[in-house]
Amino acid sequence: MTADIAAILLQDGIANGAIYILLATVLVLVFTVTRVIFVPQGDLVAFTALTLAAFDAGTIPGTVWILLFGAAIALSLEMLEAVARRDRARCVRSIIQFGVVPVAVALLAVLLVPKDAPLLWKMAVTCALVTCISPVIYRIVFQPIASASPLVLLIAAIATHLGMNSIGLQVFGAEGVRTQGFSGPPLSFAGQLISQQVAGVVASSIVLVFVLYLFFHRSLRGRALLAAAYNRRGAEIVGISAAAAGRTAFIVAGLVGAVSGLLVGPMTTLYYDSGFILGLKGFVGAIVGGLAIYPLAAAGAVLVGAVESFASFWASAYRDIIVFMLIIPILFWRSVVNPHAEDGIE
Amino acid sequence: MNKLIVALVAAVSWAAPALAEVRIGIIVSATGPAASVGVTQQRTVSVLPPKLGGQDVRYILMDDASDTSTSVTVARKLIAEDRVDVIVGPSLTPNSLALLDIVAETGTPMISLAGSALIVEPPVDRRRWVFKTPQSDAQMASIVLDHMKRRSIKSLALIGFNDAYGEGWIKVMTALAEAAGIKVVGSERYQRTDSSVLGQILKITSRSPDAIFIAASGTPAALPQTTLADRGYKGVVYQTHGVANNDFLRIGGKNLEGTFVPAGPVLVAEQLPDSHPAKAAALDFVRRYEAIPGAGARSTFAAYLWDAQLILDRAIAAAAVKAQPGTDAFRIALRDAIEATSDVAGPNGVYNMSFTDHLGLDERSRVMTQIVNGGWRLVP
Amino acid sequence: MIGRLLALAPFIAVAVAALASLVLPAYQVSVATYVMIASIVCTGLVLMTGIAGMVSFGQAAFVGFGAYTSACMSTQFGLSPWLGLAGATIGAAATAALIGVVTVRMSGHYLALATLCFGISFYFGIGNADAFGRFNGMTGIPPVTVGGFELRSERQAFGLVLVALVLSVAWCRRLLASRCGRVLRSLRTGSTIAETFGANAQRHRLLAFVAAAVVAALAGWLYAHVQRFINPTPFGLNASIDYLFMTVIGGSGQVWGALVGAGLVTVIKHELQDLLRPVFGATARFELLVFAALMIIVLHKARKGLWPFLQQVVASHMPPRAPVAPVTLTSRRGRPDQGLPVLTAIGLRRMFGGLVAVDDVSFDVRSGEILGVLGPNGAGKSTLFNLISGGLQRSGGELSFLGAPLARVSARDMCVRGLSRTFQHAALVPEMSLIENVAIGATHLGRCGIVAASLGLDAREERQLLGWAQHLLDRVGLGDRAWELAGTLSLGHQRILEIARALAADPVLVLLDEPAAGLRANEKTLLAELLVRLRAEGLAIVLVEHDMEFVFRLADRLMVMNFGRRIAFGDPEEVRADTGVQEAYLGVAA
Predict the structure, then answer these.
(1) Could you tell me if residue A150 is inside a domain?
(2) Region of poorest pLDDT, from A300-309, C292-301, C436-445, C515-524
């Protein structure tokens, strides 16, 4: 292998790693607040690209139906509960959250996005659609079992993923899409040509990690969310609702998922079922960071991307074996350094 | 006690006499990793004729979710509960191989829709009941090799799916290329959902092969070509007939121009000379398939199911003379009739089966096409 | 009547299953066969995930290991499938032991991910190996033969799988009821309980890991010879997730949950296609969506899985367990003479970073005495306990037990030497009965291992250990509730139960961390009487307690701590008079 090839592989690895970072950070975020390993995050990313592609093709994306269907369930669940408790304020709030907002976004998507609309507008509506789905998932699947063990939450997350996969195949079909990206001349960096898309993904990953880090470790609201994760009862006593914290986390997850989808879509082909494998690699990064430390999770994600890229070159048939076997010593080391995860998953 | 009675009644009715209609069980991989293949076949079921060989036909469609265990239970269900006279499918090679024992033991003829020759060769013992309609990998590979020899290609690199599809192709291509004196300088694998194949492409392009063969199906086959274009590869690129759909052309765009794709005649039905025996059948299929709402353009995978239907049309007519549908005798007669298939022209070629050949396709079953201006063009 | 029927339920179920296989249509029989194969895998997962608390995303790989080993032996070397079974299980055990040595040391999510790594590697390893037919798989695997007769048909395969299922369930249940099993069942709460009572938590984790792998390999062997074709797909990540799914849905804490989960998930998956066809039409595929929705509903309604949910209904009809005859074990170690020091500490120190939690503390405990330790919250009492009992290592100072100097203390070693303890926050296994919780205390008194337990050779020892536990329960006044679950006890009674468990370890010295907290007045009196009797028997007792009156009434000597230092030590009356104590602790200005 020449230095030239190594440099290209490294660049490719970092570009892929940046995608995994976007997922890893969200997984850490959602886990620290709700103890859910949010497997469907990858699906949100894939759905974003598929939605944008549907707009480009001039069809109504299936995401609209998914959102309306999900919101209807969430609304009825929420209303049942609110009515049972005679909580009028909650009734109003839930009608806005799961009624007015999703319907408005859906109408927007159906009526106001012609095939030749500007790319940015399509992207914005796509973002809104996907972001709205995420809190709906939280309300339907996770909120009722918020205090269950992480294993139960994980199984629920996997079930959600299976369900999304099933709808995804129905509404988007089995074939993949590649969306339009920001075109422009490649940037030159340290003698390497880097496409603007890749630079964009890398830059946003770094920004995202930095912002989340600041948010959780420097801001009051962020610390409050963390507190809600550690001790639900205690947090509620001091006025932080665990449900609200969870919802916030999921809205952020949806938003980041949508943005990731827009960023990744032009770099590679995405399928209705691409999400799982992206999420898995992100998960690896997140675990390397102990599901708690953003910069470390990001480093783990980049490592996975880079190893993957080099392993593809050396022995492509055995690539995943190489990637996953190399992780084990790191896991071992992390487990020794950070044994706090003792009660981890069960 | 009641339960016992129910069970006994069920057991008795299970051994009930023959039925008036022919039952055809169809197993496709409509979900799971192979969905892009199975979905096209699933759609085709809606345009299959209601009568075959003069008999009323009921189609029972099952999805095996691309999983071999599910294939097995689904097949058992079709045989034991629905008492099908013949199974068409599964769509995948491993899933078809998993059924060899079951169909042999229950005496149910099966027409597989999967590629590998392993399914029907040798057609003795367990494979006596098994037939298939898709061209075998080796048949398809040989037309690629002929084409390469004509273009005096000396070195070749392969890249394919890290699964049964990629493996089948790469194995047979490697063997045939070496026999033809073409040097195989690289053989790489990737996965359907990979977001990058740069590593693999760098490796094979660093050996500057005259041609690169991509063994993948559906839209994921576009990724290596996009990467090749990015790397400025100037050699000849071949794909398999697994890519033959419009989504592939849409995803790959300009990067695909000039790519050679071996395929069944159905892919370029309109361009076939009128003398081609498959032309009429292919056009007929294309007309019906493309009329299905949301189906898009033709798919060679879907056409295999159509071929199976055409074979069965003839075979059922012959078998119905000898026995009542739904009986063991009918299934035996049907098996014999399928084995006796001769000169059935389908969208993928002309089938002439025999005791030693349970596929029955010849060189008329494949054509070389090239992607030109975003469409398929027949290479004479 | 109902109770007796329930007790016989497993036998009736097996008989019904065997009968059903004769009359049911072939398809149902073959689905049932797959259900049972999955149940076998899930039984192992219950052991590993539900009981020992290790989540596995790689179980399907061990199934594959079993399937491929036997398939390879029988097709390529022409060996009998029965030799294949031996190869599959022994190979899986060895492989699991090898992998387990690394992975079981990891905790929580790290371990889960590590199993996932192995699972994925197995899939691609097999898929790229010529010897295993690569992704296209291996055909022509022979069926299992019994006495020269081939088990070829669905019904014969069903019989074989049923026998295997019964054996694995029986084995798992026997294992769980054994001495090792009790330790295993404590692992879900962490390693503390096991280590405190002399069991190697790591080794027991490994044991669960290996046992789960062996059971999985057995399932794989069945799969290979029943289906007679294998390829990598059924052994990939998705299959592993499916098994985990089944286990959690069924109820991962109990073996029966595995059966319920595997049955429900498999049957739903198979039947949904037919059920939904009239709803969505032949070409729409919403099975997985409906399946996911059903699973989420199950999790919402029964978080611990379906079996515990069903069990609630059944529990009231279950006949009460027969009481165990109490057994008094004679102490294996000679107690030191009354008044001789059991434990001596000189200048103990412990730092956490820059913070000194225990600073230069010296004291001794003599046999047949109660040493009271007092001090406000944060005075370092619990840290001191941990330094002595092996929960923490000291930063400096000397420690000796029964005259032997201790260089490094480990909880396990201290238990064997004769020290046992209770915890400030009760550390019991809530899903286990009182008597079994106490029997954990006696773990190091037994000898029988997993092999003896599997073969039922541990019956005599079990009678001894459980009898001993019953005896101690009687002593602390919980004897008539022996088979109730520890989780149902009040907080006060949980502490009493902990004392019984501590005594079960046949100790020379017990450390009691706030044993009277949460007790009512009359219960406190009973506890005090018990402690006095124990003291009279020559036991040394260290007592941390906030109830001053309780301590002053019982303690022979007192030590008072504040800010990690010993501020007074000696006769209770002297200590009570000490001005420093009054100022620092009793809140009285001197």
Answers:
(1) yes
(2) C515-524
Number of domains within chain A: 1
Looking at residue C328, the DSSP 8-state letter turns out to be P
- Residue A345 forms part of a structural domain: no
Residue B98: its chain C contacts at CB < 8 A? 137, 227, 229, 231
Query: What average pLDDT does the segment C292-318 reach?
Result: 86
Residue B293, preceding peptide bond in cis (omega within 30° of 0) = no
Interchain CB distance below 8 Å, B98 and C229 = yes
- Interface check for C244 against chain A (CB to CB < 8 A): the answer is yes
* Minimum Cα–Cα distance from A292: chain C residue: C109
Nearest in space to C369 (alpha carbons), one of C509, C206, C522, C222? C509
DSSP B224-289: HHHHHHHTT--SEEEE-GGG-SHHHHHHHGGGGTT-EEEE-GGGGGGGS-TT-TTHHHHHHHHHHH
Instruction: Determine whether domain B3-135+285-365 maps to CATH 3.40.50.11540.
Output: no
Question: Which one has a higher pLDDT value, C316 or B301?
Answer: B301
Question: Which residues in C lie closer than 8 A to residue A280 (C-beta atoms)?
Answer: 116
- Candidates 3.40.50.80, 3.40.50.2300, 3.40.190.10, 2.30.130.10; CATH matching B137-263: 3.40.50.2300
Cβ neighbors of C357 (< 8 A, separation 6 or more) are C350, C351, C380, C383, C564
d(CA B324, CA B23) in angstroms, rounded, equals 12
CA B273 vs. chain centroid, Å, equals: 24
C-chain residues within 8 Å CB-CB of A344?
107-112
pLDDT at C280: 77
Residues of C in contact with A321 (CB under 8 A): 120-121, 124-125
Please check the confidence at residue B10 and state whether its pLDDT lies above 50.
Answer: no
Evaluate whether B261 touches B370 at the Cβ level (below 8 Å). Answer: yes
Tell me if A181 is assigned to some domain.
no
**CA pseudo-torsion sign C173, C177, C180, C185:** positive
Note the pLDDT of residue A222: 79
A346 to C53: CB separation less than 8 angstroms, yes or no: yes
Range of the domain at A142: 3-176+189-337
Q: Testing the interface with B: which of C12, C41, C139, C238 to mutate, by most B Cβ within 10 A?
A: C139
Task: Give the best-scoring range by mean pLDDT among A329-338, B92-101, C407-416.
Answer: B92-101
pLDDT for position C357: 87
User: What are B310-355's pLDDT values in tens digits?
Assistant: 999 999 999 999 999 999 999 999 999 999 999 999 999 999 999 9
- Residue C395: is it exposed, middle or buried by C-beta count within 10 angstroms (0-12/13-18/19+)? middle
> Where in chain B are all domains bearing CATH 3.40.50.2300?
3-135+285-365, 137-263
CA angle C351, C352, C358 (to 5 degrees): 40
- Within 8 A of B204 by CB-CB distance, chain A residues are none
DSSP string, C105-151: TS-HHHHHHHHHHHHHHHHHHHHT-GGGTGGG-B--PPPPEETTEE-
Contact indicator for A290, A283 with CB cutoff of 8 Å? no
Q: Could you tell me the CA-to-CA distances from B257 to B65, B141, C320, C581 in Å, in that order?
A: 34, 21, 79, 92
pLDDT band at A343; cut points 50, 70, 90: very low
Q: What is the predicted pLDDT for the residue at A290?
A: 78
- Give pLDDT tens digits for B50-64: 999 999 999 999 999
Stretch (H or E) spanning C366 = strand C355-366
Q: Quote the minimal CA–CA distance from C305 to chain A in Å.
A: 9
Q: Whole-structure pTM over 0.80, yes or no?
A: yes
Q: Does the CB of B136 have a partner CB in chain C at under 8 Å?
A: no
User: Domains in chain C and their CATH numbers?
Assistant: 27-315 (1.10.3470), 341-418+507-586 (3.40.50.300), 427-488 (no CATH)
